[in-house]
Structures are given as C-alpha cells and as structure tokens.
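[job 4417] fold queue: 2 targets
>>> target A
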Amino acid sequence: LSHIYLFYGEEDFLIDEEILSIQNKAIKLYADQLTIERLDGKSISGKEISGIISQPSLFNPNRLIIVIDYDFEECDLLLPCLKNMPPGLFLVFTSKKIDSRKKIIKYLKDAAQVAEFKPFAPWEEYKLISWISSRVGKYGKSINSEAAAFLSEIYGASLRQVSIEIDKVVTYLGEGTMIRKENIIDTAVAGQINAF
C-alpha cells in the first residue's frame, strides 16, 4: 500500500475500481484501526485538505483519505503537507485531467503511485472485447467472441454500463459457464437492443 495515489483520466469506472481495491487492502491491513474519509474535490480547497491531513484522527491511528475530482488549482499549501505526511495516512486523489507543469503534479509523479485511466478509443474495439472477456472470467464464466462483440456494439466503451450488463447476464446464466449473444438479448432492456 503506497501512501499517496493519483488517478486521473476520463474512465471513472476503472478509477472507482482501483479506489475500491485500495480500500479493501487498507481494511485488510488495519481492520478496525482505520478511518476512511471521502472528500469532494470540487468543493474543497487545498488549504482545507492540508488541514485535514495535518489533523490527527481522534479515533484511529490510520486514515485513508480519498479526494474525488480534485483540480489542483488552489494547492500551494498542499505540497508541504504532502512532503511531511504523518505515518498511517494514505491519500488518494482523482482528477479528470492534470497539468504536468504544476509543481504539485511533478512532485506526485515522483512520490506517488500515478496512473491514467483513458476510455477505449473507437479503433480499440479489440481491447474492449478483451476487457469484456477478462471481466467475465472474474466470475468463472466465459463469453464467446460474438457475444463480446455484441456487448461492445450495444454499450460502446462505457465500461460501467458493460459491467452492469455482465453482472445481469452472469446472474441470469446461473450455473451455466458460457455467455452467448442470446443470453445478452434475453437480459437487455428492449430499447437498448432495438437498434441491433
């Protein structure tokens, strides 16, 4: 578990999954010795974040602070706090985009675990189909190529929507192991399929 993370990009579904993974690791490591705080980055300043970081928790020695959609605009006071974070503090920032010229971003690229999450481009359908197959595999199921391509056609590169549909089809399939196009048609909402 790193102490600072920066996740940015337009693919918020993958960012949410990464945050959930970090939360689960932190909970596993610290169990009831952990406080998790979620902050709305759109309505909080760097000064306020600095205050939260600097203030020790009254309840638990370990804290995970998640700042969602922070734009790094008012962050002059934040950089010194990041350089001197107290032990037991884990910090996750998410942002739609970053300006790599800013001092704080340069610092984070050196000191934090940084990852960009971009949606699949229209010409990357093969990557989306591969992602769909991998996602289905997490449930111990398989999907044939026709069905994966069909999901891709219906929902495009919206990984959140594709994931919801995979969850529905897996539940519908029950003990079955292979997802076929017919299974997707059976579980899809009528308006989504009419165009196909």
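>>> target B
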Amino acid sequence: TAGTAGAAGGGGGGDIATAIAAAAAAAAAAAVPKGGGTTASHSGARAVGAAAAKAKAGIAAATVKAEQDRAATIISSIPTDTQALFTVPIDWDDVEQANILKDRLAPFLEKKVSEYLTGGDTKSALPSDDAKEMAEEIVGEVSKRPADASSLVTYLHEETGVMETASEAEGFVVKLWRMLLYEVKSYQLMRHELGK
C-alpha cells in the first residue's frame, strides 16, 4: 500500500535533515568573518558547497531507497503460487489507461521471447523479427482481457505451438502475469499517492 511504501521510504529522512542542518551550519560559519576575510569567505563557500552536495546526495539516496521499498512492497503483494497468481483479477481499465501493454509489456515480451528462441542467450543485442512478431501476437492475446492467465498457457502451447511443452508455456506466462500485475499495482499506487 502507499502507506506502507511511504513508511518504508521514510527511513532516509534523518539523513536528509542532518545534511540540511550541516549545510545551514556551514552557511552560518561562512557568514562570520575570520581573520583574513577573503580566505575565510572562500573557505566558507567551499564548506557550503560541500554541505549542499552532501544534502543533495542524501536526498537522491533517500529517493532511491523509497523507490526500492515501494517496488519491494508491490512485489511482496503478488502471489508466488502459480494457481493463486493466475487467478488474481486484473483491472483492465487501468491497464488500458496506463498504456501498459504497449509501453511496458510489449518490450518485456520481445526480450523474453527472444531469450526463449535463442535458448536463453541474453547477449543478443536486439530481438529478431520473429521475436517481435510473436510478442505482438501474445500482446494481442493479452489485450482480449483473459479472465485468468491459464488461458494464455493453452494459447502458447496448444493453440499456437509457440512453446513446445505445457511447463515451458506455464513458466513463460508466470513471468508475463507477474510483470503485468506489477505494472498495474505500480500504476495504482502512484495514482493513489498523487490523490487521483
């Protein structure tokens, strides 16, 4: 949930506050003239710059941590049991509204189909035309809004013969369905956080 993600991401707040306080202290120290005047002001400016850089780095680190916690929260909410996973309802209106099939799922499927066709070779720079065509066909099947993912296993193995065995098809669909659920939940969480 957004609350969980927000709470998990809040751990970096102390670091940010410390960095900002350090920047403020350095700025105050720079404002106090010391002996040589010019040397002191240059030294103070360097201290302020260093403190500001530290504050910026702290904010960036906290943002990354918050995103990692947010992703972990979403992933932990997705069932690992295949039967449970395949029957999780999908909000297809959100899939369409966020353009998930075209923007997120299609590139993911091109990569996974390419890996399948090359026997798991992840070094191939670009998916082949065959991989792209197969990915488009799978996206087309997903766009029909199946009630559960098991129909995609049947489609990939029995109807098209894309996957040689039912277990290969099931393993492929597990990855596809988890990706789809992750993207939908991520979109819903973002929308909730924005108050829409």
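[job 4417] complete. Note on B: Residues 1-14, 27-37 have pLDDT under 50 and may be disordered.
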